[in-house]
TrEMBL record, chain A:
Alphabetized Pfam families for the sequence: BPD_transp_2 (PF02653)
A single cellular component GO annotation: plasma membrane
Subcellular location(s) of the protein: Cell membrane
Membrane topology: Multi-pass membrane protein
Annotated InterPro entries: ABC_transp_permease, BCAA_transport_permease
UniProt organism field: Jannaschia aquimarina
Domain of life: Bacteria
Name the record gives this protein: LivH_5 protein
Chief place of localization: membrane
Gene name for this UniProt entry: livH_5
UniProtKB/TrEMBL annotation, chain B:
Keywords of this entry: Signal
Protein family membership: Belongs to the leucine-binding protein family.
The protein, known as: Leucine-binding protein domain-containing protein
N-terminal signal peptide: 1-20
Segments forming domain Leucine-binding protein: 27-385
Originating organism: Jannaschia aquimarina
Superkingdom to which the source organism belongs: Bacteria
Length: 329, 428
């Protein structure tokens, strides 16, 4: 196989893996939009908040310690214990459920029947508020996230491809783990929505709010449920991205990588978020490899992802898997 | 945060004007994506002035009042901070952002307030005859690029011909700064320069590091900031690029840039414009008079780390310029114009650095009307993961003035022509 083709194949495989990481973020957007019609601008910040909470619990950090110390003149920062990763993850899930309840109780319950743009604005406010709370709770410094995820080149793939092609492919172990987790997440979400009472209720709400209400489904419960699931997805995304860069405030910017995925895959489709992520990941990486770096000076990935998404939008405005909305007059 | 809340509480209680006369704005960024870098620098900057107030009763008998303003590393907010604080009698601004610096250069010139852009900002501001009010001592970006190449020359017996150096840079004005100098140095020394741009914020760098894995350059230089640094170090480890051949600039060489990658970051190198010595006597003084007294800008945990030391060094240079200005003009209560004179006559000697409690914190240098950039020297440090600290590998290395000075002359004269400036020294 010619060298350039081998390199392109390696780039495409890494693009697929990067696409999975984008999909993990996009999934949270899709879940909330599908159930409530809200485009949740705060999804990236939720990933940041979840990851910071996880590391804070793991390290035994006292939440709001700076605030407490400033008010009471104390000097406490840590409880003095370290929690195992699995316990810290479980406790973070509880925090994300509490957050979901609070978001619905104090914000969206008061905004029922408002225009989508009002709901969108509310999520912008929520994003900035949550970022401030995360800062107050856990501080601004970069935190090392260690939940035992493997990182670095996968030796098996490297040696097998070297034996076959004479060139060892680079695939990051973290990306492989992310792919497995994303697959399990999608299977779990599909099973939940198909085979559980709450899942069927969620689908009913997603199809028609009024009809769901008329058969006794509690909209409040469903919204808390879906924000909780989105919070869990945000935690998974936060762990995967935080493992690469440490947990820091720029983690919230991963939402920018999810937007072209949503435009391409559709705002209402879980498979769309996955397929959209894969197309964006492969597309941007191959473009950078073949055209961006050799001819345009590089750094094309951010804008090319949006160009790709726009191209799809022109021909299929609802996205690849989105529902076509027809309004009769 | 602690400092902010304490300040708010004290302000609310006293509700009166502060008595201090030497006003130093601190354009900090304690929030947002770059807070991890902004917090220790600001802590160091403020704590040193607090030390002078507590220990010495200020400078020349005048207390220093630090006015902190949060920029979030955002250019618009930085300009707002400048506008809202300059009326308080600000003596000097440390904008701590190249973007903010570019916006403030014409404003500060019009207002007659000096800027100190230490190791960042507009490189050609070294030419003091064009940029009367801007100082970028002790070194600038082009010095940094040249120091890195001189270090590599030294590592390779003075010959880099046939070697390949890849520059991984933040795709912004800041990241592109060293390209011109590196191109000139590549031509002079015969090495190949590969340029790899990384889009903001730099969380995804797979393409760049796959290319490095394929092409195996001999060395990688990095002009990064924020999350780009942590991801680059991790990706370098992932593709098994030798850490000892990976050199970041001085904004890519703090503890938080390497700790997320754990042991894999061991051996990573970076430039620095000042030394790192957590055992320096000045830190003991800060702990005694500031941290233990509950007056620190932060919680005291950053004292002695890379960016805290740099912030403290910036404050030390500002304080020395104030002393020089007081000496020149025979008054303790100086104006911004007098401060500029003090900065233009600043001298940092070995003896003076020792007196200040940190021998050899920076290079020996002097500033003049013509040279606002100091010596331009920098050093190389290396991360020791087991000790969790950067350790010096070299002493201060001279940059290649033969290459840099003509570039500075060309760029500064172009600026002078565009802005109708007649080069010359400022009137005292």
């Amino acid at each position: 196989m010619p060298d350039q083709l081998l390199f392109a194949t390696e780039v495409a495989l890494n693009g697929l893996m990067a696409g999975v990481m984008y999909s993990l973020v996009a999934l949270g957007f899709v879940l909330i939009f599908k159930a409530s019609g809200i485009f949740n601008y705060a999804q990236g910040v939720m990933a940041l908040f979840a990851a910071m909470t996880l590391v804070g619990i793991q390290n035994g950090q006292v939440p709001f310690s700076h605030l407490i110390n400033a008010i009471f003149g104390t000097d406490i920062h840590y409880f003095g214990w370290e929690a195992p990763a699995i316990l810290a993850i479980a406790l973070t899930v509880v925090v994300m459920i509490a957050l979901a309840w609070a978001v619905n109780r104090f914000i969206f319950r008061h905004l029922v029947n408002q225009e989508p743009i009002i709901l969108f604005m509310a999520t912008i406010g929520l994003a900035y508020f949550l970022e401030g709370v995360a800062d107050l709770m856990w501080g601004s410094e970069i935190k090392t996230l260690d939940v035992g995820l493997p990182q670095g080149i996968n030796e098996t793939i490297d040696s097998v491809t070297f034996e076959i092609f004479g060139y060892g492919f680079f695939i990051d172990n973290l990306d492989i783990v992310a792919t497995v987790i994303a697959a399990l997440l999608v299977l779990g979400l599909v099973a939940f929505s198909q085979y559980t009472k709450q899942g069927r209720a969620l689908r009913a709400v997603a199809d028609d709010h009024q009809a769901a209400l008329s058969v006794g489904i509690s909209l409040n419960f469903i919204w808390v449920l879906v924000w909780s699931i989105a919070g869990f997805v945000a935690l998974v995304a936060g762990i995967m991205w935080g493992a690469k860069s440490g947990v820091q405030f720029s983690l919230s910017l991963i939402a920018l990588k999810a937007l072209p995925v949503l435009m391409l895959g559709g705002f209402t489709s879980i498979p769309g978020a996955i397929v959209g992520g894969l197309i964006i990941g492969v597309g941007e990486k191959l473009f950078e490899f073949a055209i961006g770096q050799p001819f345009l000076g590089g750094a094309t990935e951010n804008w090319f992802a949006y160009v790709l998404a726009l191209l799809f939008l022109v021909f299929r405005p609802q996205g690849l898997f989105g529902e076509k909305i027809i309004e009769r007059v | 945060m602690k400092k902010t809340l304490t300040t708010l509480a004290v302000t609310a209680l006293l509700a009166g004007p502060a008595a201090a006369d030497l006003v130093i704005p601190d354009l900090s960024y304690r929030t947002g994506p770059y807070a991890a870098g902004g917090i220790p620098f600001s802590d160091g900057y403020q704590d040193y002035f607090e030390l002078l107030n507590q220990r010495d009763g200020g400078i020349g008998g005048e207390m220093v009042r630090v006015v902190e303003c949060e920029t979030g590393y955002n250019t618009e907010k930085g300009v707002e901070c400048y506008e809202s604080t300059k009326g308080e009698g600000a003596l000097v601004y440390q904008p701590l952002s190249t973007g903010i610096t570019y916006q403030l250069i014409p404003k500060a010139a019009a207002d007659g307030i000096p800027l100190h852009t230490m190791g960042y900002g507009r490189t050609s501001a070294r030419n003091g005859e064009v940029f009367n009010n801007v100082f970028n001592y002790p070194a600038n970006y082009w010095d940094a690029a040249s120091v890195a190449v001189n270090y590599l020359l030294d590592e390779n017996g003075g010959d880099l011909s046939g070697k390949t150096i890849a520059l991984v840079y933040h795709n912004s004005a800041y990241g592109k700064e060293p390209i011109r100098t590196l191109e000139a140095l590549a031509e002079k020394h015969g090495f190949d320069l590969t340029q790899l741009a990384v889009d903001h914020p730099g969380q995804e760098q797979k393409s760049q590091w796959l290319q490095i894995r394929r092409e195996r350059p001999d060395y990688v230089l990095m002009w990064g900031w924020g999350v780009m640094n942590q991801v680059a170090v991790q990706e370098a480890a992932n593709v098994r690029f030798p850490m000892e051949n990976f050199i970041g600039n001085w904004w890519a060489g703090a503890e938080h840039d390497v700790t997320p990658a754990g042991d894999a970051a061991n051996g990573y190198k970076s430039l620095n414009m000042n030394t790192i010595n957590p055992d320096a006597p000045v830190f003991d003084e800060i702990r005694e008079h500031v941290v233990d007294a509950g007056l620190a800008a932060g919680d005291g945990s950053n004292v002695g780390n890379v960016l805290y030391t740099r912030g403290m060094y910036a404050a030390m240079l500002a304080a020395e310029a104030i002393r020089k200005a007081q000496e020149i003009h025979g008054t303790a209560n100086i104006t911004p114009a007098m401060m500029r004179d003090g900065m233009a006559a600043l001298e940092m000697t070995e003896a003076r650095m020792e007196e200040l409690g940190y021998p050899n914190i920076g290079p020996v240098f002097s500033v003049s009307c013509q040279n606002h950039g100091g010596s331009g020297q920098g050093l190389v440090q290396q991360w020791n993961a087991s000790e969790q600290r950067f350790e010096p590998l070299t002493g201060f290395i001279e940059p290649d003035r033969e290459v840099i000075d003509p570039l500075i002359q060309e760029d500064s004269m172009a600026y002078a022509e565009e802005n109708g400036i007649t080069p010359g020294c400022a009137d005292s």
